[in-house]
Amino acid sequence: MNKRVILIILDSVGVGAQPDAKAYGDEGANTLLNIYRHMKPELPHMERLGLLEVVRSTADQEALAELPETKTPIEGAYGRALAKAAGKDTTTGHWEIAGDILERPFPTYPEGFPPEIIDAFEKATGRGVLANVPASGTEIIERLGKEHMETGKLIVYTSADSVFQIAAHEDIVPIEDLYRYSQAARDILTGEHAVGRVIARPFVGTPGSFERTPRRRDFSLEPTAETMLDKIKAASLTVMSVGKIKDIFAGKGITDALESKNNDMGVTKTLEAMQNVDSGLIFTNLVDFDMKYGHRNDTTGYANALKAFDERLPEVIAEMTDADLLILTADHGVDPFYPGTDHTRESVPVLAYMKNMKEAISLGVRETFADVGQTICDWLEVESLEIGTSFLSLLHR
């Protein structure tokens, strides 16, 4: 029997501040709970897998009174996982899921990048730099886009995450040049300055109406340890990346990739992969929750994006066979109701489903995101990870 796993990352859909959240300035954050309390989304298909039970497990008595009752019987396995790695960014979360747990967080730059980095970048690109500050991506291009177009200087900015972001207008800096500049930055940012990601941020438009394009590209570090992707690939099984997964892992352990620019396309491409991949892992990231809504504190957009995914989830389930395992999880939080626009240090939901499941199964609180990766290795019968505990036996009880 050819086994498959469909692993879908609901980017930033966290569920409750971790015990160490205070150290990150995120005490009290809870992305899903606050979306439920304030926006009242109807998510019947994820609730069928146990989503609302996970949310309930993180709520106090006051919040519980504001949550709806589950309207359909639960036919999935549900729980949540705690991050063991230091940090709360996309790369850290995805790597931990796959079995690579960072002991130290990637470097961040709340005061901007030091002169030695900027000087080297300007020398490598032959262009000057604007900004070099932490900023919102949409705000920084509105503020400096006109000057960028007039001078050709690159807009460089960061955030609370470990990122070196380069924004450039596609009419001023051709997209291939922007990618080349991003690779140059990646080559510079090593050692103590090894940020998690360099991100190319192309945009178009005119002053007052700039718009970022979907041709963003991430230039990540390679994982520091062997991941589930490597182990699955080594077993001659397919590792199909959908969306930015390939970028997050710098291509390591990936055998095939499908591009996706938004959540809806991500689901469509996942379905396409399910129709063409007969064994191995289909690994999808749905980025809109984080990029379009969480970082912009767009609570309505965030709730609507959850509803839109929930409406398409039955298509994924309908495409499953008896040899498939579906897992929905996340990589961190970005509570749009919480002060600021940065990621939040949260546990993540873990929802699992197989065709033959007929009753609710509690997975409890998992000690690390890597339990997901270990379970995937277990299901696919490949070499185990060095860390993480499989919950596959719970699904078969």
Explain the overall architecture:
Helices cover 35% and strands 19% of the residues. Strands 10-9-11-1-12-13-2-14 form an eight-stranded mixed sheet, with helices on both faces. The mean pLDDT is 96. It is built from 15 helices and 14 strands. α7 links the parallel β3 and β4 (154-158). It is globular, with a radius of gyration of 21 Å. The chain has two domains: 4-102 and 224-395, Alkaline Phosphatase, subunit A (3-Layer(aba) Sandwich), CATH 3.40.720; 115-219, Phosphopentomutase (Alpha-Beta Plaits, 2-Layer Sandwich), CATH 3.30.70.1250. The two termini are 20 Å apart. By secondary structure, the chain is an alpha/beta fold.
Give a quick rundown of the structure.
By secondary structure, the chain is of the alpha/beta class. Helices cover 35% and strands 19% of the residues.
Overall outline: globular
Contiguous uncertain segments of 5+ residues: none
Helix content: 25-40%
Radius of gyration: 21 Å
The major beta sheet can be summarized as: 8 strands, mixed
Under CATH at level 1, the class of the largest domain stands as Alpha Beta
Count helical runs: 15
Return the domain count.
2
Q: What string, H for helix and E for strand, traces the elements in order?
A: EHHHHEHHEHEEHEEEHEHEHEHHEEEHH
Task: Note the gap between the termini.
Answer: 20 Å
Strand content: 15-25%
Here the CATH topology of the largest domain equals Alkaline Phosphatase, subunit A
CATH architecture of the largest domain: 3-Layer(aba) Sandwich
How many strand segments? 14
User: Looking at this structure, what is the CATH superfamily of the largest domain?
Assistant: Alkaline Phosphatase, subunit A
Order of strands across the main sheet: 10-9-11-1-12-13-2-14
Mean pLDDT: 96
